[in-house]
Amino acid sequence: MANKASKVSETVIRRLPIYHRYLTEIIDKDIERISSSELSKLTGFTASQIRQDLNNFGGFGQQGYGYNAVDLRNQIDKILGMDHTYNTIVIGAGSLGSAVAKYNDFRASGFKIQALFDTNTDLIGKSIDDIPILSYDDMKEYIIEHKIDVGIVTVPKQSAIDVINVLIETSIKGIWNFAPIDIHVPEDSDVIIENIRLNDSLLKLSYYLKESHLKNEY
Amino acid sequence: MANKASKVSETVIRRLPIYHRYLTEIIDKDIERISSSELSKLTGFTASQIRQDLNNFGGFGQQGYGYNAVDLRNQIDKILGMDHTYNTIVIGAGSLGSAVAKYNDFRASGFKIQALFDTNTDLIGKSIDDIPILSYDDMKEYIIEHKIDVGIVTVPKQSAIDVINVLIETSIKGIWNFAPIDIHVPEDSDVIIENIRLNDSLLKLSYYLKESHLKNEY
Questions:
Q1: Beta partners for A28?
Q2: What SS3 state is found at B84?
Q3: This prediction's pTM
Q4: What is the mean pLDDT of chain B?
Q5: Which one of A138, B55, B60, B123 has the largest count of C-beta atoms within 10 Å of its C-beta?
Q6: ipTM value of the model?
Q7: Which fold has domain A10-79?
């Protein structure tokens, strides 16, 4: 299945967490089975789109019977690698870094946060929910010693470029970047970078607020 | 221009914050002018795409002369409503709420955070960077009294649905939602909701990590 999954397009991958979210809502409501047309009503994707997406991974639906919500979510868990564990560090122990370190959903997703790193000597030596805050100077060594898979970058924009360039040089496999910058990964590197664009999202909100505001004026 | 802008497609709107980000990088490097082809190299969009996008708003480029980076960013600021100020509250004064309240970029974007709201009596009465933490029970009244435009929802998934349903009933214009849930805004409501999908992003990262991991095994 892995090889099959690895051929799946990014657009399908982007929809899988959405299925995952809705299936969790369904399971929380103790609903056992769901049809592709019911999933279509929830997600807004067409039923055939949904069947196609899920068929990419071996299609677990049964004609006129629908999907077993728990089985389907378990399958998606596997596809999304949620049965794996990723040794994770957070770079930046400020308010955003603390929030990330405390956010249980991330731990639940298999991202085990081992340490935070900061240059602020007031923070180094302290800990957040029993996760130690270590000196940024020791990060590279720590990544090798503790076989760290993922670095979550929560430092300010000004330092983020340097931090990410350092991370790319290490054995780290993935970077989850919260800084509003664009990273150009060198050709020979196979580090995976996923960006959270808080500012882009806020500017989008700002645009629609302004537009509705203007509309209300006419 | 407002009426013209309001006809612009969402895909264009989504690209504007990206232009904004790159223009800021350029301006930080003291570069005065940039051509659409240079912007194309940076953003990965085609030069004609870029010219088209910017023409939506009255095209400020000059043949063989390019764009003045500062002027262009100022124009995009206006288009994105960054010259407006939005009275903002944060619901949830936990670690994520604190991080949002402390994040200067949001303030810079015109989202003025007036107060945080929480149900935790240990937090109520305290403040974060001089922003008071008030009782959630007083939120509805506060929104009316202080003409609040935007609510940023940072409460856990379990409470988020209720909070957002309460917000939708108020005079609030926009909601920035960090909870991993989907909100169905009633037909008659014109509240604008922008979601930050932290979990979706993390699951996407998890998928690609798993895939690269499997590839390395073969």
A1: none
A2: coil
A3: 0.82
A4: 87
A5: B123
A6: 0.81
A7: Arc Repressor Mutant, subunit A (1.10.10)
